[in-house]
């Protein structure tokens, strides 16, 4: 994955995730919830790609700071879901997983495009280095964001996935503690998470794009 050594790359990466990746991520949450029985997000207008609707002040700030500090986009937004309306034992986890899966899907799509372009001699000879850098940032950034959101820390999606998979009694014991210390854990992830997420992202990035 490329290192952000240019301010314009950082600005483009932040813009892509706030304007494209976050709205797609949150739309997938809303759509999954609607399909599984909860229309809360739909009634609140979250079945949209409008970036303003999906912007979360704390999650958006995390994204900007993480890109500027480490070059890795770590952030989140929030789509309202009433789990009491969801159908199925694992519906809540499915709704939560829909967002990160959308990031992995975007990484796969842009990764395949990058791989195809990189194997075309004419494109390699004529395309500017800026193109490869931006494609790399989008692919790697989506992988990192997907992994980040799957961490079992509230308010990240991974916490809902984890709690859904636990037996009900275990969930009752664990959930209050996660909710109470969620923001502290999130701050720890913000400070130290890049050391874990970064190497995993690099490995998956190379597997996707081939370089």
Short description:
The protein is mostly helical and 211 residues long. It has nine helices and no strands.
Strand content: under 5%
Number of separate helices:
9
Mind telling me the C-alpha Rg?
18 Å
Total strand segments: 0
Order of helices and strands: HHHHHHHHH
Largest sheet descriptor: none
Mean pLDDT across every amino acid position: 89
- Spans of at least 5 consecutive residues whose pLDDT stays below 50 are none
Calculate the terminal CA-CA distance, rounded to whole Å.
Answer: 9 Å
Q: From the helix content, strand content and strand pairing, which structural class follows?
A: mainly alpha
What is the 3D form? Answer: globular
What's the number of domains? 1
Share in helix: over 70%
Describe this entry's structure for a reader:
- The chain has 211 residues and is mainly alpha-helical.
- It has one domain.
- Helix content is 74%, strand content 0%.
- It has nine helices and no strands.
- α1 runs antiparallel to α4 and α1 packs across α7.
- The chain is globular and about 60 Å long.
- The model has no long low-confidence stretch (mean pLDDT 89).
